[in-house]
Amino acid sequence: MRLFSPWKTLVVKDGERALLSRDGRFVALLEPGRHRLFDMRGALSIETFAVMRAELPADRHALLAKVAPQAAAELFERVQTGPDEVAVVLFDGQPVHFLPANALRVFWKVVTRVEVVKVDVQASLRVEAAHLKLLDLTRSPLVVLATVEQHETGLLFVDGVLREQLPPGRHAFWAVNRGVRVLKLDRRPQLVEVTAQEILTRDKIALRVTLSAFYRIVDAQKAVAGATDVATALYRLIQFAVREAVAGRTLDEILAARDNIDQEMRGFVTARAGELGVSLDELGIKDVILPGEVRELINKVVEAERTAKANLIRRQEETAATRSLLNTAKLMEDNPLLLRLKEMETLERLMEKVGRVDLHASDGKGLDAMLGSLLRLEPARA
Questions:
Q1: Pairing of β 33-38 and β 85-91
Q2: How far apart are CA 88 and CA 117, in angstroms?
Q3: What is d(CA 70, CA 64) in angstroms, rounded to the nearest whole number?
Q4: How is the chain split into domains, by residue range?
Q5: For the whole prediction, is pTM greater than 0.85?
Q6: Are 24 and 63 in contact (CB under 8 A)?
Q7: Are 239 and 266 in contact (CB under 8 A)?
Q8: HEC readout, 285-317
Q9: Residues 121, 126, 132: CA angle, nearest 5 degrees
Q10: What is the 3-state secondary structure (H, E, C) of 338-381?
């Protein structure tokens, strides 16, 4: 038969604490160790809690603070934030918890050193560097972090209103009870390719024109206020410019004055690009695509012009050659020695192509007679 004992034994481990209550009312905090408690009527109740970097439900703390305010103040750190406040809770110097606005948390501080850093986010929009080190930005939706590169310009909008222009660097802002957005714009030259635009010229020929343009954002605020998409707006302006330039000219004028068309389009777009906060660096026609039948006709015309020019050059060369032969003939007519030299040159060229020469002497004529006859000069006229 088991005997009834009024004594209870409780072991509290390191990292634990026990709350002793009698008839539902707090009596004492039990430290780590072995405790022997007298409970004749069974009125004692014990709750054991892990207190290493731990917290207590806020409603339980509220009841304990009413019946034992001094013990509650010694055992717990109560952290409550207002509507314009956030807090960072540090355990032994290490940030562990981040409390948003209107939050309430209770932490044990009997083993862990608890520190609380509160920030008034209404007074300061920017997150200070000291506070930024305490935040885990990957899990903090209340902080907007933006890095503006060297080639970019950042614009800060708070509740839809432009507040300031951000220089290159790292920026962080509190997004508590406000909408914060950072828009970044690239200030490097950007390319706009205007694909083939089919345009009817003044002489009713349908052309397709391709253009290229380079632009830079020089005024970020105008770029944001002037258009939802700067590249698209500039694309439309270039379309209007090329239609104005091409529709008022014939095909021959377009092919002959591309530089003038480029300058006219550049002036049209530049005058309106300033309202978008951009600077137009280059603008020019890249390709002019003609219809198939028109392209064939132009190719034939170009071929005919080149053929006529080649024939003209050939006739000029033939005329010059004939004139040179005439001058040579006049010289030979007046100078027989020159004629004989020309004959010898001709004979020499012929002999270079002959592999064998046979001489047949007949009628008393031999090699000496033939050479003498070949080289005989006409006596000078009196």
A1: unpaired
A2: 5
A3: 10
A4: 12-120, 137-186, 190-290, 301-348
A5: no
A6: no
A7: no
A8: EEEEECCHHHHHHHHHHHHHHHHHHHHHHHHHH
A9: 90
A10: HHHHHHHHHHHHHHHCCCCCCCCCECCECHHHHHHHHCCCCCCC
Distance CA 273, CA 78 (A): 59
CB 52 within 8 A of CB 26: no
Cα 340 to Cα 348: distance, rounded to the nearest angstrom: 12
pLDDT digits (tens, 9 = 90+) for 97-130: 999 999 999 999 988 999 999 999 888 889 988 8
Strands (E), the chain: 7-12, 16-22, 25-30, 33-38, 44-50, 55-56, 76-80, 85-91, 94-99, 104-108, 114-120, 143-148, 152-158, 161-166, 169-174, 180-186, 190-200, 206-217, 278-289
Residue that the structure tokens 């083939």 belong to: 196
Q: How far is CA 201 from CA 237, 243, 253, 254, 263, in A?
A: 19, 9, 10, 9, 18
At 273, which helix (H) or strand (E)?
helix 258-273
For domain 190-290, say whether CATH 3.30.479.30 is its number.
yes
pLDDT in tens, 284-343: 888 777 766 666 666 666 677 778 888 888 888 888 888 887 887 777 777 777 777 777
